[in-house]
Amino acid sequence: MTQNEETLLRRAIELAAEARAGGNPPFGSLLAGPDGQVLAEERNTTLTDADISAHPELKLARWAARELDPATAAGTTMYTSCQPCGMCTGAIQRSGLGRVVFALSNEQLDGLKPGGGWPQVPLDGPALYEEARAPVEGYYK
Question: Of residues 14, 57, 107, 131, which has the active-site annotation?
Fold first, then answer.
């Protein structure tokens, strides 16, 4: 990791501290262009916005998909205080961002939570393949 990357990752950690000071969970992220310049910053606002999806990584992925052309998005790096959750990872992939650098892993984060993290929700499926594929088939061409 370069010194500039460390500086950007430390800024993401500062954003996490700002989120916590503002009454939200302690997570922060920023998006940097290929030259290392910060394009956008976000903090977790899930509590103050009363929105369980207001993660900084998701907000930045949505911003990038809306504001950046695909080639520019592919050249970006997201620096984030914690490894993105599944929801945010999906948004990052769909937005076409180039890379993610994180400080805490999800396993390390779970070790800091009483009870070790979120409970698993049982998933059942796949089911009704023929019916379910009808509206999807041919869409991804």
Answer: 57
